[in-house]
Amino acid sequence: MATGSADSPATLYGPVSLVLGVLALLTAVFAGFIGIAFPLLFGSLAVTFALLGLGRKLNRRQCFIGLVLGSLSVLYPIVATAFVTA
Q: Where are the transmembrane segments (predicted)?
C-alpha cells in the first residue's frame, strides 16, 4: 500500500462534500415535495466532509463550496418552515 497524501482516502473529502452540497441544495429547493429530511441529511454530511477536508488542507476550494452549499441547504428548509408557520 502506497503512502502519501495523494493516495489517501482523505483526498476525496473535497469532491464528496461538493457533490453532497449540490444534492442537498437541489433537494432543499424541492423540500415542499419530498420533505426536509433529505436536505438536512445531505447538507449535514456535506458540512462534515467539508470541515474534515479543510482540516486536512486538501482540495480547499471544493471543500469551501461544499461547506457553503451544505450550510445553505440546511438553513433554507428551517427558515422556510419558520416563515410558513409564523
A: 20-52, 64-84
Annotate 23-55 with DSSP letters as a single string.
HHHHHHHTHHHH-SHHHHHHHHHHHHHHHHHHH
Q: Are 6 and 53 in contact (CB under 8 A)?
A: no
C-alpha–C-alpha distance, residues 10 and 71, integer Å: 21
This prediction has a pTM of 0.84
Which string of b and e fits 34-45 if b means at least 16 CB within 10 Å?
A: eebebbbbbbbb
